[in-house]
Amino acid sequence: MHPSSAFRHRALSTRARLVLLVTAVLIPVVLFAGFLLWRFAAAERVRYEHDALELSHQVSAAIDRELIGLTAALEALATSPSLQPGGDLAAFDTQARAVLRNRGSFIAMRDRTGQQIVNTSRPFGSPLPVSTDPILLAADRQAFETGKPVVSDLYTGTTTGLKLVLIDAPVMVRGQAAFALNIALDPARLSEILASVAPPEWTVAIIDSRDRIVARSRQHERYLGSEATPDLRTHTTGAGGIWNGQTLEGMAVLGAYTRSSLSGWRVAVGVPASAVHAPLRQMTWILLGSAAAVLAASIALAVWFAEGIVGPWDD
Hints:
The protein has about 325 residues and is an alpha+beta fold. It has helices at about 5-80, 90-100, 135-145, 185-195, 220-225, 230-235, 275-315, and strands spanning about 105-110, 115-120, 150, 155, 165-175, 175-185, 205, 215, 240-245, 250-260, 265-270. About 50% of the residues lie in helices and about 20% in strands.
């Protein structure tokens, strides 16, 4: 074999070995970078889980404060002398309307048969119907039986036809719960609270014990009263937690929820899965691009270095 041919063969072998050496050195570096990327993605998910769960806690506490304020006003109203035998219902109606100047939608009072006695959504003295909504009547029964205020699930008002929630409190007459006095709350008020704290693209919702949407930070009117998604119903049976699911719009989300001990309602927070995975996708592309660039540059350098080693033999 001619010496120059042998040297060229040796040059090719040297180039190949240098390329393999560079590749062998870079592979562990890339794998380690991939491990760091995985750790970063896991840390980002934990951060989103923490933020979503914390938001659900904060919103649940804010809703509870709203309900506690309404309950205090209602319990004070239930002690009005106008509701005792011989009392003045017209005076009570005026008193109830004064309470509504700052809170609630309307105030109503029913006896144990469901017959409405007072309803501020109607002029005083107007004929009033018997309430028939089973959710409302269930709240009345609980108030009568326990002698304590009750927060209802979403129901449809008999006189207004609106979807509402209420706080029910018993009116005690001679030591017995004679009437159920309630203050109704428009879910739109709750939706305003949710929308004021929800980050852009996140979804925050209130779900009652019957798995119905009470309020929502996004598209509230569209989904008011709708049944919650199957995955939410399945994964929100405890006091709080995290799950993966979908919104009613079909968007994949990381979900977090908190259950209120006051109302039994759940506050659910949905973080778009695209937002959770975005840092991982971005860093993956950066890693792949950087690895490809470094590998190409290293191979080119190895080939150039091999030429430098073999070059003198060709002279």
